[in-house]
């Protein structure tokens, strides 16, 4: 199952961008044997400001995918629960999974309406750059949990 972290905004050479990419590469390397991967970070940028313009650039990437929108009102998972959900989708035959991280104002309702589910990082507000790294790390952690690696400790 291919996994894409689709994010609004370009981080360039920021530390958070490097960290997200590192975790995506680790997840790809470890996930192959489990039928997970590749894991990719895809950055898009709208030509105009606002959630509606961001929606226009995001929506074409969502076809034929199980879409998980990162949203403050979403479901908060434990790491093991999250790993189990990823495995369940893989086992159900999902071939492409897209995680969405919107811009500074969140995701447009038109994007949220096409999401299959929503994911929250807890009640705090996190910077978008850091949210990318956190999501990539949780995906890597999910792979290690599913493989039986000692990386995750309860």
Q: Note the overall shape.
A: globular
Helical/strand content category: alpha/beta
DSSP helical segment count: 5
Helix content: 40-55%
Q: How large is the radius of gyration?
A: 15 Å
Could you give the count of β-strands? 5
Largest sheet: 5 strands, parallel
Please give the alpha-carbon distance between the first and last residues.
26 Å
Low-confidence stretches: none
**Highest CATH level, the class:** Alpha Beta
Series of secondary-structure elements, N-terminal to C-terminal: EHEHEHEHEH
The number of distinct structural domains comes to 1
CATH superfamily: SPOUT methyltransferase, trefoil knot domain
Textual characterization of the structure:
This protein is α/β, with parallel strands linked by helices and 154 residues long. The chain has one domain (2-147): Alpha/beta knot. It is 42% helix and 21% strand. The protein has five helices and five strands, in the order βαβαβαβαβα. Strands 2-1-4-3-5 form a five-stranded parallel sheet. Helix 1 runs parallel beside helix 5 and helix 3 (79-91) crosses helix 5. The protein is globular. The mean pLDDT is 95.
Sequence-ordered SSE layout with sheet pairings:
Blueprint: E1 2-8, H1 15-31, E2 39-44, H2 51-58, E3 66-75, H3 79-91, E4 96-101, H4 109-114, E5 117-119, H5 128-147
Parallel strand pairs: 1-2, 1-4, 3-4, 3-5
Helix pairs in contact: 1-5, 3-5
């Amino acid at each position: 199952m291919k996994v894409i972290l689709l994010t609004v905004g370009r981080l360039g050479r920021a530390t958070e961008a490097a960290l997200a990419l590192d975790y995506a590469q680790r997840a790809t390397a470890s996930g192959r044997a489990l039928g997970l991967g590749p894991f990719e970070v895809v950055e898009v940028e709208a030509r105009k400001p606002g959630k509606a313009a961001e929606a226009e650039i995001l929506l074409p990437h969502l076809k034929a995918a199980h879409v998980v929108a990162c949203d403050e009102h979403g479901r908060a998972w434990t790491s093991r629960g999250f790993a189990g959900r990823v495995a369940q989708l893989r086992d159900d035959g999902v071939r492409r999974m897209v995680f969405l991280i919107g811009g500074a104002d969140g995701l447009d309702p038109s994007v949220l309406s096409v999401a299959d589910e929503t994911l929250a990082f807890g009640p705090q507000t996190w910077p978008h750059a850091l949210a990318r790294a956190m999501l990539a790390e949780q995906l890597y952690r999910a792979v290690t949990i599913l493989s039986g690696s000692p990386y995750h400790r309860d």
